[in-house]
Each structure stands twice: as structure tokens, then as C-alpha cells.
Amino acid sequence: MAMLELHQVETFYGLSQALFGVELTIEGGEVVTLMGRNGMGKTTTLRTIMGLQPPRHGTVRFRDRDVTGWPSHRIARLGIGYVPEGRHVFANLTVRENLLATAANHAGTLEPWTVERVMSLFPRLAERHQQFARTLSGGEQQMLAIGRALMTNPVFMIFDEATEGLAPLIREEIWTVLETNLREAGQAILVIDKHPEAMARIADRHYVMEKGRIVWSGNSAALLADQAMQERFLGV
Ligand code: ATP
Prior knowledge:
binds adenosine-5'-triphosphate, Rossmann fold, alpha/beta, 4-stranded antiparallel β-sheet, 6-stranded mixed β-sheet
């Protein structure tokens, strides 16, 4: 059963068409990336998946259900954990309170995430569990944002440029957690990012967008091998 399937998706902002015939599939347990330069349609694709910008044509299927046109809160409740760029934590709650605030298990996961499990994933959060989130560094806030998404026990996660603007060491720490803790546990994830080398390491397959279309897809070996494609579409 596919986790997520976009078929012939065309999304518009008023009269202006942003997505053209987008085909994208993610199987259970897969880590897949969506890459492309700025303004090529990545955010619009996410907004379409989450029901924030429903497609005018085509279908979005999530866990074998046609969710096209569903309101976004209903889609989210099927088990999507969204990690946005730029933190989005409650500044005036402590680290622990931030994690407790999103705790849920709509999909009925057998071994749900707990505050303790999240803190063992990110020891920095454990050290700071009683601090207000506003006192954390940017990287620590991003770890907290990931923890908050995990506390919803998602069946599918979206990392939306979740390491943009972070110090390289922190970025590495987050990628390592993604690779060795989440991917190996079979968590299905869609990652929007701009670093093909790192993405080849942490993900199974990749999609590249250009002007609202998927112009390339393939596995990590194919991504690394195709330098010409990287230069043309990713500006590497
Ligand atoms: P970035 O990484 O900069 O967010 P992106 O690949 O996510 O880029 P989108 O934000 O999806 O790209 O934009 C795709 C196209 O849709 C662009 O041409 C953009 O100008 C247009 N677009 C995005 N949001 C809107 C909007 N609210 N109204 C009208 N056009 C929009």
C-alpha cells in the first residue's frame, strides 16, 4: 500500500498554474526527497498534499484513501507530522511542555513516542527540559519542532527545509537522527531540502522539480551519478 500518491496533480493560485501533472509516490517505510531551486513548486506540492491548496485536477491519495479536496485538519489527523522551516515552537512553554502539548496517537501506534524517547533522541533537549523554548538556540528549537511532530505519532512525516539556516554541526546532528533513528525504524518521510550529497545518504529516492513539473526522479546512486542534472536543476 502506498503511503502517498499524487496523480496528475495540477494546482493553481487563482488563474496562475503552479503545478503541472505532478506524479509522486511514497511507499510505507520510504524516505523520499523533493528538491529543486526556489520557486519551482516544492512548497505548493506540500500545500497540495496537506489540503491547504487543493488541486484543481488530479488526485491525492493518502494511505489508500482519496483525500483530494479534504480539509487539511482531516488530512492531518490521518497521521501527518509536519516539521516546518523556522522552528514554530511555543516560546513561553518549557521544552517538556512543548512536547506534551502535541502528544497524540490517532493512528494507534503500538509503541508511541513519549517525552523520554524524544529526549533520548536529542540529548540537548533532555538537558534543557525545564527551560522555556525561547531560550533555546535555533538548532535546539528545530530539534524541539521535530520532537513535537514525533509526539503526534505520525505515520508520515514531512521535513520542510527543516535544516535551513542552521549551523553545519546541528544540521548533521538532525540528518543523523533522521537517517539512523527514523529511517531505520521504518518511518515514511518526505524531505524538502537543498543538499543532494546529504540527501543521497539519508533517503531512498528523489524527485526534482522545475517550473511546477517533476523533471527527474531516481534513487540515490542515480542522483549522485547525474552531475549534469544536478547542475541544471539544483544549481550545484
Ligand atoms: P521556495 O523553496 O522558494 O519556497 P518552491 O519550490 O517551494 O520555492 P513554490 O512556493 O511552490 O516554490 O512556488 C511555485 C510557484 O507558485 C512560483 O511561481 C510562485 O511564484 C507561485 N506561488 C507560490 N505561492 C503563491 C501564491 N500564494 N499566490 C500566487 N502564486 C504563488
